[in-house]
Design a protein that fits this description.
about 200 residues
Length: about 200
């Protein structure tokens, strides 16, 4: 499927509308999750496909450090949108030519997924409210992606609906790391190779 700026803008607008609708549905406990045991890398690749144009436009390098053997128990559509929101957020507040790193690690029965950017970071007084409805960090020097102010709120509600938690570690001028958890495991019988093999 060919990606164009117009196509990407349409996806952004659709994602914004879905965020608005689903935040209300989550708050009213009207979201029925369709949980599947699915490869994390497959979900991530779907999310990357939806943000590839804006990443390319800002010359942002996306470094994928995921272990290909990780599987998660998640609703694929909701999970992909969590990743799209976090990646879009990273692109929005990152300077052109910077890097976004995606990584994950397994801890007991959970997988922790992190999205790290080298952007301008979040002011300390904004951090306690970053997942609140309609709240956005007051730093728009490189904000080139439209937002409803509900993207991170959606992420929080969606992650919590999966039984996970989400948090952010950030300081001004040092970037941000958003990390969330989801039930998961390492696939049995998977042989891991260096990504350059």
């Amino acid at each position: 499927e060919q990606k164009t700026p117009i196509h990407e803008a349409g996806r952004q607008m659709l994602n914004m509308v879905l965020n608005i609708l689903d935040v209300n549905r989550f708050e009213e406990a009207k979201v029925a999750l369709h949980i599947q045991d699915i490869k994390l890398i497959d979900l991530l690749n779907r999310a990357i496909g939806q943000v590839s144009v804006v990443m390319h436009q800002k010359h942002i390098h996306l470094e994928n450090k995921l272990n290909k053997g990780l599987q998660v128990e998640a609703d694929p559509e909701i999970f992909v949108r969590v990743m799209v929101n976090l990646l879009s957020n990273a692109a929005k507040y990152s300077p052109a030519g910077s890097k976004v790193v995606i990584s994950a690690k397994k801890d007991k029965d959970n997988v922790f997924i992190s999205v790290k950017d080298n952007g301008y970071g979040i002011p300390a007084d904004e951090l306690p409210y970053i997942f609140d409805k309609f709240r956005q960090a007051d730093n728009h020097r490189e904000a080139t992606v439209r937002s409803s102010g509900l993207g991170l709120t959606f992420c929080k509600l969606a992650v919590e609906a999966h039984g996970g938690v989400i948090q952010v570690d950030s300081s001004e001028n040092e970037g941000s790391v958003f990390t969330f958890s989801v039930k998961g495991k390492q696939a049995e019988g998977v042989i891991f190779r260096d990504k350059h093999d």
